[in-house]
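Quick note —
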Amino acid sequence: MSQEETIKKQLYDHCVEYVNSRLNNIQNAIRSAQESANDDSKSSAGDKHETGRAMAQLEQEKLSFQLAETQKTQQQLRQINPSNTSEKIRAGSVVITNNGNYYISISAGKITVMDQLYFAVSPASPIGNALIEANNTQAEFVFNNQRFSIKKVF
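Predicted structure written out below.
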């Protein structure tokens, strides 16, 4: 396995772990909110009870939305094959620029691989979109008043 393949695999694996961790945390929070709502309904009466139930319902709705969004992110990630390479910038590409290294996948923040810092960004994010539009290894573009020069894509 080449160094580039190793980097892509480690970036992809980190993103998978990131999404799985988020899913697990949200599912645990949903279970906890459900248990709390069940406990409230057993022990309370009157207006206090209704307010508690309404708050628990709002929390469950918020968590359900987060769960659905994270599941969409997981689906986007599953569509990436880390062993594919292309000179065209797209989901799954690693883009090396004069202003940082980017992994076009999901928004997962900073990732360090082989002592190099990479930013996992969604193709729909402003910087992800700018990188995709730049589209080749010799492209230059301006983003947030900074000039970017693409050095390498893999």
